[in-house]
Amino acid sequence: MPISTSKHHIIAAFQGEAGAYSEQAAIEFFGKGICTLPCVTFEDIFSSIKENRATHGMLPIENSLTGSIHQNYDLLLKHNLNIIGEYHLRVSHCLLALPGVKLEEIRRVYSHPQALAQCEANLNRLGVEKVVDLDTAGSARLIRDGKDPQAAALASAHAGEVYGLHILVREMEDNLANFTRFLVLCQENPVQYQPEGQTYKTTIVFSVPNVPGSLFKAMSVFALRDINLTKIESRPISGKPWEYLFYIDFIGHIEDKNCARALEHLGEIAEFMRVLGSYPRQKQE
Amino acid sequence: MPISTSKHHIIAAFQGEAGAYSEQAAIEFFGKGICTLPCVTFEDIFSSIKENRATHGMLPIENSLTGSIHQNYDLLLKHNLNIIGEYHLRVSHCLLALPGVKLEEIRRVYSHPQALAQCEANLNRLGVEKVVDLDTAGSARLIRDGKDPQAAALASAHAGEVYGLHILVREMEDNLANFTRFLVLCQENPVQYQPEGQTYKTTIVFSVPNVPGSLFKAMSVFALRDINLTKIESRPISGKPWEYLFYIDFIGHIEDKNCARALEHLGEIAEFMRVLGSYPRQKQE
C-alpha cells in the first residue's frame, strides 16, 4: 500500500459493478477495508472525485493483450486530476457457478465478449455454449440470481466472493500474460518524493509544432539524459486533422533534477505540455 | 484515380452495407463504375481479397476526431496484403428523409451513436429525438423501408442516393474538420515508383529490443536523413506485456535511395520489421 492516508478514509471510484476487475484492482492496491464506489462510465470516476463522493479513482489505461483504452487518455487531459499511483492487475478469469454444482453439469457460460474470447480454446474444450453479457461481474450476479445449475460465469475470483459463487476452474484464459494497468487518480498529490529506495514514473502529455522532426526532438530531451521511456501513445487533436497529442510515461520523478531539466528542455520544443503525475513505479516480475 | 488498372476490373471490398462511408470512399478513390463488395467485418475485407472475391480493399485506419482504428493495424500485420494508396474522406453527415418530407415534420433521427454524437448540437437545435441504430447506411435503409414521414437518418449523401432519400440538411456535424483516412489494399503492388512529380508515403511496422532508448534510435534513422514521419502508432505484443509494435508512416518510397538506407539502418536496430506498402501520398488541403 504505497499511500500513507489511512485506508478508512479511502473511497475508490471504479467503472463497473460490484465484483468488477477494477474493484479488485482498487482493493489490491489500497488493501482490504477501503470503501469502493461503482460508476457507470469512466467519466463518472472523474466527476465522483471532483464532487468529493470519492477520494480516489481506479482508471484502467492499458491491457497487455488488447492495448490502450484510448478514451481514458482523452479523459486524463480533459479533467485535471493527478496520477498518484499505478497498479498492474493480473486478469485471470474463473469459471464461477452456484455452490454444489459440478463442472460436468455446466452447459452455458455467460460473460463479457472479451472474456469469452480470451478463454475461447478452454471453453471449446469444455463444449459449452457461450452467452454474451454486458460485463463479467454482471454475469456473476446473473448466475447467483438465476439459480440455473447448468450455467456458469467467467469473472474474477473477487466477483465469485461478492456473489457467493463457487470457483470451478481458475485461469480459464488461453493466454496467461493478461495484465491490465490501472492509474490511481486523486484531486491532490500526496506522493512525497523520496529519492532513496523508490523508483518513480511520470506521465506527461504534450503537442509539438507540425514540422518535420519535431517529435524526434521532443524525444531527444529524454534520450540525451538517459531517461527511459516506457510508453508512448498518440491521440488526435480535435479540429486539427492529422496532428497529435503525445502521452509519454518515463522513469523518474519531476523533482529529480535530470527529469526537471528534460521537461524544461521539452518546454522549448512543445507547443503545449502538462504533467499528469509522478508516482511510485510498480515493478512487475 | 491513381491506379492504372481499368476500373471495370476493380471490385473494392468495404466494411458495412451499401451506402456506407467506406463505399463512398472506394468510389471517390477509384471513380464511378467500379464494383463494390460489402463485408460484415474488417477482417472479411482481407479474406475477400485473398480469396479473389475482391481485387482491392478500402480499410479505414484513422479518424481525425476519434483517432486510430487500432484493430485494423493488427489486421494489417496479420494478413500479408500491400497498401497501394490512401484516401482522406471528408465525413459529412446529411439529414436524409423520404422525398416530399419537410424539415419541420421530422421528429426522430436515426443513426450510428458516433454520427448522432458528432451532430449533437445541431440535432438539439432541431429538437428531435435521437434513435441509435447499428450504422449510418442501415439507418438510411430503415427510413426508406419504414415509410415514416416523421423520421430521418444521419448518413452520407451517397447513402441518400443509394436508398432514394432526399437531403434535408447537409453538413449536420458540429465539427467540420471530420476526416477518415482509408488505406487501399491489394494482393500485389501495382504502384510504379515515379520519382518525378509524385510524393509517396510508406507504412512500416517494427519492434525494438526492450532496452532504454531503442525507440529513439529507431526514429533517428529517419531524422538523421530528414525523412518526415507523419504518424506513429503503438500496439501491444501478445505474450510480452508492456512491449510494443510500432507502426510508422513516413514520406518517401522504399525505392528512394534515402529511404532504402534508412530502412537498412532500421534493420540494424529493430528486432522485427516489415514494409506494409509504399503508395502515392494524397495531399490534403
Summarize the structure.
Chain A is built from nine helices and 15 strands. With 285 residues, chain A is an alpha/beta fold.
C-alpha-based Rg of chain A, rounded? 21 Å
Name of the top-level CATH class of the largest domain in chain A: Alpha Beta
Q: What is the number of domains of chain A? A: 3
How many helices of chain A? Answer: 9
Q: Total number of β-strand segments of chain A?
A: 15
Q: What order do the SSEs of chain A take from the amino end to the carboxyl end, as H and E? A: EHEHEEHEEEHHEHEHEEEHEEHE
Q: Biggest chain pair contact, residues each?
A: A-B, 37 and 38 residues
* Gap from first CA to last CA of chain A: 18 Å
Q: Give the overall pLDDT of chain A as a whole number.
A: 93
CATH architecture of the largest domain in chain A: 3-Layer(aba) Sandwich
Structural class of the helices, strands and pairings of chain A? alpha/beta
Shape of chain A: elongated
CATH fold-level assignment of the largest domain in chain A: D-Maltodextrin-Binding Protein, domain 2
**CATH homologous superfamily caption of the largest domain in chain A:** Periplasmic binding protein-like II
